[in-house]
């Protein structure tokens, strides 16, 4: 995808502060970080989000995220971490290229990650459960639902 900023970063057409790179995955510092050390993990191949991402690449992204999260915690002394992955405009995805945010957390930092909590009736919860657990194996290419 020619106009994707993350594709351009992956192709070294735009400079970045790389933390990690292999054939499938690139990790670099966010230029507008929530906190110092805020890192983005991207696939080098363009996938818009988690639903269309290749499972092998997605698995590699998770493995790299784990390693980088551990490194951030140890070397930057963060007390905790937020690891986020947004899908779609209404979920807060600003760049339509799959990526994970690793945000180090420190005492008294100013990062706020919040959403209002809803209360659903038992009937509503049962209906949602029914819809989600009725998926057939052939409807999922990546996972065998067993509840």
What does this molecule look like?
The relative contact order is 0.15. The protein is globular and about 50 Å long. A five-stranded antiparallel sheet has the order 1-2-3-5-4, with helices on one face. It has one domain: HIT-like (HIT family, subunit A, 2-Layer Sandwich), CATH 3.30.428. It has 147 residues and is of the alpha+beta class. The protein is built from three helices and five strands. The mean pLDDT is 91. A hairpin with a 3-residue loop joins strand 1 and strand 2.
Features:
about 150 residues; alpha+beta; HIT family, subunit A; five-stranded antiparallel sheet; 5 strands
Write the layout of secondary structure elements.
Layout: H1 5-10, E1 18-21, E2 25-29, E3 39-43, H2 55-76, E4 80-84, E5 99-105, H3 122-133
Antiparallel strand pairs: 1-2, 2-3, 3-5, 4-5
């Amino acid at each position: 995808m020619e106009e994707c900023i993350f594709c351009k970063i992956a192709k070294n057409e735009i400079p970045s502060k790389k933390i990690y790179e292999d054939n499938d995955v690139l990790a670099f510092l966010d230029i507008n970080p929530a906190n110092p050390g805020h890192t983005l993990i991207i696939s080098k191949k363009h996938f818009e989000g988690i639903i269309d991402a290749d499972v092998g690449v997605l698995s590699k992204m998770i493995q790299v995220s784990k390693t980088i999260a551990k490194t951030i915690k140890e070397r930057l002394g963060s007390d905790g971490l937020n690891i986020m992955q947004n899908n779609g405009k209404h979920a807060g995805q600003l760049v339509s290229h799959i990526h994970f945010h690793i945000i180090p957390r420190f005492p008294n930092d100013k990062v706020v990650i919040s959403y209002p909590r809803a209360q659903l009736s038992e009937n509503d919860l049962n209906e949602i459960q029914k819809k989600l657990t009725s998926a057939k194996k052939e409807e999922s290419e990546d996972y065998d639902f067993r509840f």
